Amino acid sequence: xxxxxxxxxxxxxxGAFDLATRLFDIKxxxxxxxxxxxxxxxxxxxxxxDGSFIGxxxxxxxxxxxxxxxxxxxxxxxQSNMDGEMIYPLVxxxxxxxxxxxxKPALLSFEDVNTLFHEFGxxxxxxxxxxxxxxxxxxxxxxxxxxxxxxxNWASHPDFLKMYALHYQTNEPxxxxxxxxxxxxxxxxxxxxxxxxxxxxxxxxDWHLQTQNPSIGVNEFEKASLDRIGLIDExxxxxxxxxFNHIFGGDGYSAGYYGYSWAAVLDADAxxxxxxxDLFNKNVAKSFRExxxxxxxxxxxxxxxxxxxxxxxxxxxxxxxxxxxx
Length: 326
Hints:
It is a single chain. The protein is an alpha+beta fold. Helix content is 44%, strand content 11%. It is built from 13 helices and 7 strands. It has helices spanning 9-24, 110-128, 141-144, 146-155, 158-164, 176-185, 190-208, 218-228, 245-248, 259-275, 282-293, 301-309, 316-322, and strands at residues 7-8, 26-30, 42-48, 53-60, 72-77, 90-94, 107-108. A hairpin with a 4-residue loop joins strand 3 and strand 4 (53-60). 33% of the residues are buried. The mean pLDDT is 92.
């Protein structure tokens, strides 16, 4: 790991909040008067710059007995506005980061940093939702991953890294040589990773295109699927059929695992709109909020994206980010 556990979780959390404040003119107010279900849970009221209410964000970042592994965003209550009765969202970000000890704060790896920013992007999507009907903010996998994945771009951008990535003991900004290592490490094994993701996506679609029971067993079906796309022996599908929980476990990714790859196209192209102007361009951020974060799931995704970007997404930014354009 290029960056070991040297950045305090609280600085990273504050960095995510500061980014949202800078982009969207919102603020986060700690609420100690709202009851929580565990002592590690913190509550923040989210407001517009003028003080008007947006929603409530719960953060639940540490492991405990009975809590499942991983990280996710969820709702205690989703937003809706039926018959003019505005129901404001109650959103939660959950993680399993290393807890503080008696002599050290909670310290995160850079993988953890990306996870925190990723789930925070989902939280903003839920907080900013402005739909009429409950559940309409739930979009397709590719589009719902856009608000989360785009946040990871800021998390690793050199200009922003130096604002929040401060050493927990010295409070000094992350040095340039580490930033260079972090960004160079992004290119490692990308060909392998992209191929295994796409292989799993093809396997997913082959299963869900079946209109009758296959005449061969699971292993034979899987081999035929992967042989058809010419997958080489050195690379396997990211998941085998018998443990492909994303598509068979009721997670909503059935016939949609490709969404992660398409979301990468979208988030890279969307972030490029900031790089073409300014990393914290408020006009671009305003358009992203109004057309993507507020409306996702309530209108045709491609039409919303074109309203934001002025055109359909291009793959160029993703190829550059992966190092495939050289």
